[in-house]
Amino acid sequence: MPHSFTVNDRRVEVEAPDMTPLLSVLRGPLGLTGAKPGCGEGRCGACTVLVDGRPAASCLTPLALAEGREVRTVEGLAEPDGPLNPLQDALLEHGGVQCGACTPGILMALTALFERDATPDEAAVKESLAGNICRCTGYHKIVEAALAVAGANGGRS
Amino acid sequence: MTRVVGTNARRADGEDKVRGTAVYGMDHGVTGTLQARLLRSPVPAGRIRRLDTARAAALPGVHAIITAADVPDTTSGWILKDQPMFAREEVRYIGEPIAAVAAETTEQAEDAVAAIELEIDPLEPLADMDAALADGARLIHPNWESYPMLAPGPRSGNVAWESTLDRGDVDAAFAAAHLVVEDEFTTQRQHQSPIEPHAAVGRFEGGRYVVHSPAQFPFLVRDRLAEWLGVPASKVRVVVTTIGGGFGGKIDAMLEPFVCVLARKTGRPVRLVNTRAEELQTAGPRENARIRIRTAVSAEGEILGQEADTIADNGAYSGEIVACAAVPGLVFGGTYRVPVARYRTRVVYTNTAPTAAFRGVNGPYAMFALEQHLDHIAAKLGIDRRELRLRNVVKAGESIANGQVLDDAVFDKGFARVEEIAPWAEQAPSGNPRALRGKGIGAVTWLTNPGPGGATVKINEDGTAGVICAGAEIGTGAVAVGLRQIVAEELGLTPDQVVILPADTDAGTYDGGAQGSRTLFSLGNAAVQASTQVREQLLAVAANLLEASAADLELADGHVRVKGSPGAQVPLAAVALTALHTAGPISATGRHITPPVQFDSGCLTGALFTGFATPTYHVHSAEVEVDPDTGKVTILRYVVAQDVGRAINPQQVEGQIHGGVLQGVGYALYEDLRVADGVTLDASLESYRLPTAFEAPPIDIALLDNPWPDGPYGAKGAGEPSLIPVAAVIASAVSDAIGKPIRNLPITPFDVLAALREDGTTEGSTR
Ligand code: FES
Ligand code: FES
Questions:
Q1: Is A60 exposed, middle or buried (0-12, 13-18, 19+ CB in 10 A)?
Q2: Distance A41 CA to ligand 1 centre (A)
Q3: Which of A10, A103, A104, A119 has the fewest CB atoms within 10 Å, measured from its CB?
Q4: Tens of pLDDT along A99-113?
Q5: B757: how many CB neighbours lie within 10 A of its CB?
Q6: Residue-by-residue DSSP string for B535-568
Q7: Domain residue ranges in chain B
Q8: DSSP character for B192?
């Protein structure tokens, strides 16, 4: 079955069975390995991408559900040769990246949050990360980074 | 004063990680490479009667299938070399590799695995340590006596390894005691569960095996491959990818040998990645253990003597647990004064998945047992629990159970800092008036792994520095930022002017692996040594250019300049270029080894770690509330006072502490890799529960400044230890809250409710 949708604003056509996980299509034929196959079962969040602005575990998202939609991955957050976006920059500034395997998923979950609410509080940040496991950082510096961005957006930090 | 060391410089690999362009082991060879899968044993014990791959090999897309028949009949291992690459005649655990397939796609490889004909005559599994230790038990390794060893150690049958510490007249101490207290504790398996599973891509080129994998200890992987593949180590090259988390689980070789042999057979690159189920069920977790401990004390609570007997589950084959078999004894007798001691640890074979290193190997359960035992003693004597610890904890210059003198112990400072942050007599605020409240506090001595390392530093012709070493960056930032800071500090550069080659066994000198907090300690020392020589070379060349004496020159801001005359300077680039025509390219190599620990050598057997090399000191406290209706434990406040010598990058050190504490919280309250009848029951992260952002407690951190004269800029190892005390102090706090002892981990709500119901009382214990 041919499927057409956009990935990071570029139109793509993919020929694969309906139930193929979106993650495999992104990482295989589309060559975007930013989303990580942490578990393949919807439990770690490392494969999180945005589908029409909403976070989705791409390992459990059938390709057919991407049809006609806008898919965004971590590779689309900043121009490859441009500066980092504020969330990416804050994660590094605050030490919120260690091994980095969770980072693409964390960034997409936070991106969805900040697009809804530019000045989230700590509870909202944690809520947005409910589906993302980070085994390295203990989450503190990730939350700190997100709150710094909220602060820069005019929120109380 | 330092300029770069001690700052929160950014990590070199950070941009690629936040852009999603870092290439991890799991990202290598996603396309254009053959994909491999393993046939694994479906039973915990048995003899292979028939193994026929002919039908499977004929399936579409299949390029090769290999079994024990295709590889040398050797066994391998780090310390105790008892593990074959494939099960040959006998299978010893569920998940043991029996065959490997390479095919065009993963699906085709899976189909072929399913089509392999395998018949096994099952044996009664020895599913737990009691079964394996029972009189007359079947030997899991009938040929145990024939296995090669890196270093000899006491072994016997199903006891893969035994380590003892025996010092002084223990019986006399018990005979003279005011009180003798005895306890028994059991702890569970805990899985490392990095986000990235084990992965490997192998090639065969130029008659050599080249493997790309997220290896914590690439030289160990190289040596293991050489043993299994029957080739000299120089025929193997291990290139370390970006590593998506390890925590000990990626120290040893795992999937690498299969892709190497398949690559040779097929002439193609071959990739193999574990599924999450394979990770949980076959990639060795922290070992489960049982500890019996008995202590003689005076009426004032002074420890007079102690004995402990620990059994630790090795699983079917030996990994790092045998290497660290002496560690429980060192933990029991390494923090509080134990004048005479008798400790024994036996590492026991069972028909279960092999266990392996997990951050703080063999330490967390030993400390858990010891601290609960101390609480028991305090209750019996009516002494405040913190006070009991203060009375016994070692002071600088005192010796511990193995006879090692801890010259720089800073427990007094650690307890004082914790007291400042969270006074023992005060309670943190809580929103739940019905909650039961409790506190715990404990201390531990830990080590910086003494393994060797080396680093080459060179000055590039644009005036930047290059570093070549085989230090694996597992995410801690030790290589990606700490090592850069040290070299930058040494050479008057900024951290981003220092470029470090990723670890590769062909390039870097031998390195003892990213384990035991050693990377920045060891490579930092090696890099300082190399940089010192590089500086001399630079100054000698620049002395001519500046017509000054080398003694009057210094390195600053990317220049060599004459001290005290700011205008008289020459850029490093010009010095490096000039050197090409005069002295030769600027480059030097440094190396490092930690001198052996001084201890009473007669008291230990079977010990590869004989004491605390470059010791570090840790005091943790926890305050919890327990909901009496649901049994839920909430950590209100957590405090860490940690001696890191000196923090090269305080932000990265804090990150290690935050992460280690949360892994410890998982061990204390949630994580339990359950094994029954040889079956690892947890096959997904649905039932094996990792802590989320909601479980992360507030953590206060006090870094204790205690510079180590033999560390780079005073640094000691910092990565590993924050996990070790967590279960101990949380258990103490829960026990304090519910007024009942905690003897097993993890502490689930069901356990809490059951304990509360035991005799109806719910008052807290004395404190
Ligand atoms: S890989 Fe999709 S949630 Fe883990
Ligand atoms: S940084 Fe390693 S899992 Fe989050």
A1: middle
A2: 5
A3: A10
A4: 999 999 999 999 999
A5: 10
A6: HHHHHHHHHHHHTS-GGGEEEETTEEEETT-TT-
A7: 32-123, 289-449+599-756, 450-592
A8: -
Residue B473: strand, helix, or coil: coil
What atom of ligand 2 comes closest to residue B194's alpha carbon? Answer: 3
Mean pLDDT of chain B: 96
CB B53 within 8 A of CB B67: yes
CATH, domain range A2-76? 3.10.20.30
B709 to chain A, minimum CA–CA distance in Å?
28
Q: Does domain B32-123 match CATH 3.90.1170.50?
A: yes
pLDDT mean over B523-532: 98
Quick one: tokens of B114? 């399913």
Average pLDDT over residues A3-12: 98
Alpha carbons B102 and B266: distance in angstroms, whole number: 8
C-alpha B614: how far from chain center? 16
Buried b (16+ CB within 10 A) or exposed e, B307-331: bbbbbbbbbbbbbbbbbbbbbbbbb
Q: How far apart are CA B499 and CA B620, in angstroms?
A: 37
- B472-495 confidence digits (pLDDT tens): 999 999 999 999 999 999 999 999
| Residue B403 to residues A46, B184, B286, B366, B612, Cα–Cα distance (Å) | 48, 26, 28, 19, 11
Residue B187's φ and ψ, nearest 5 degrees, are -135, 160
Q: Of B767, B579, B658, which Cα lies nearest the Cα of A97?
A: B658
Does the beta carbon of B512 lie under 8 angstroms from any beta carbon of chain A? no
Other beta carbons within 10 angstroms of residue B61's beta carbon come to: 16
**C-alpha distances in Å from residue B733, one per residue of B79, B436, B439, B728:** 38, 10, 4, 9
What residues of chain A, 77 to 136, have a C-beta less than 8 Å from chain B?
A: 77-78, 80, 84, 88-89, 91-95, 97-104, 107, 125-126, 129-130, 132-136
Question: Of all atoms in ligand 1, which is nearest to the CA of residue B685?
Answer: 4
DSSP A46-94: TTEEEETTEEEETTTSBGGGGTT-EEE-GGGSS-TTSPPPHHHHHHHHT
Predicted confidence band at A156 (pLDDT cuts at 50, 70, 90)? low
Confidence of residue B401 (pLDDT cuts 50, 70, 90): very high
Are B515 and B223 contacting, i.e. CB atoms less than 8 angstroms apart? no
CA–centroid distance, residue A133 to ligand 2 (Å) = 8
The model's confidence at residue B151, banded by pLDDT at 50, 70 and 90, is: confident
Residue B72's pLDDT is 98
Whether B289-449+599-756 and B32-123 are alike in CATH topology: the answer is no
In CATH, what number does B289-449+599-756 get?
3.30.365.10
What is the band of B632 on the pLDDT scale with cuts at 50, 70, 90?
Answer: very high
Give me the residues of A, 16-75, that contact B with CB < 8 A: 27-29, 31-41, 43-44, 46, 73-75
Distance CA B406, CA B587 (A): 38
HSE of B765, CA atoms in CB hemisphere, 13 A: 28
Q: Write out the CATH class of domain B450-592.
A: alpha beta
C-alpha pair distances (Å), B350 with each of B120, B286, B347, B641? 19, 14, 10, 38
Confidence at B152, pLDDT banded by 50, 70, 90: confident
Specify whether B720 is catalytic: yes
Element (H, E) at B442: strand B436-446
* Predicted local distance difference test score (pLDDT) of residue B181: 98
Which residues, 6+ apart, have CB-to-CB distance to B701 below 8 Å? Answer: B639, B640, B641, B642, B654, B657
Measured CA to CA, the distance from residue A91 to residue A113 in angstroms comes to: 15
CA-based Rg of chain B, rounded to a whole angstrom? 27
Pick among B8, B11, B18 to test the A interface (most A CBs inside 10 A): B18
Whole-number Å distance between alpha carbons of B306 and A154: 59
pTM over 0.95: yes
pLDDT at B256 over 70: yes
